[in-house]
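Morning!

This is the sequence you dropped in the shared folder:
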Amino acid sequence: MSEPYDSRFTLPSVDDAPSTEAGVILMGLDAERLLAGVGLARLADEPALVALAVDQARHDALDLGTEALVEAGILRWRAVRPLIEAGPEMASAGSLRREWEHATARVIATVTGLGPASVSCLAACWLRRDDIDDAVRFASDRRSPEQESAQDVLSRVFAD
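The structure's back. Tokens below.
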């Protein structure tokens, strides 16, 4: 008797977009790295934000360490999660790669003005939303008062 077939672990089709394989890799990251990716992607998608961040970093007003990127990702996730959740329902595809395609389509349909990095990071967060939401709650519970000043600078840089 053969083992049951699990389509999540099939090799990619030669017709699959490279972004699909990148998405499969992103989904394997832990929640903190995904949130940091959301924070950095938001910055990288907008040339004006890149210029502003470089200027602030030059004047020592911006910390782009992992904690700051995670905080920026948390701010962004909180802003866009309700939009993504309100998006069109899509049937479960049963395949990790098809799920990725559905998630990216949902993000693109619900959040405007995103570049490819933000679409990918937010789609990965959407597919792993339970883990991401837990990480956001945990980060909020452990935030110290001195971290608030770093958040204020970041919120100005990453504000929509």
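Headline: Residues 149-153 have pLDDT under 50 and may be disordered.

More detail when I'm at my desk.
O.
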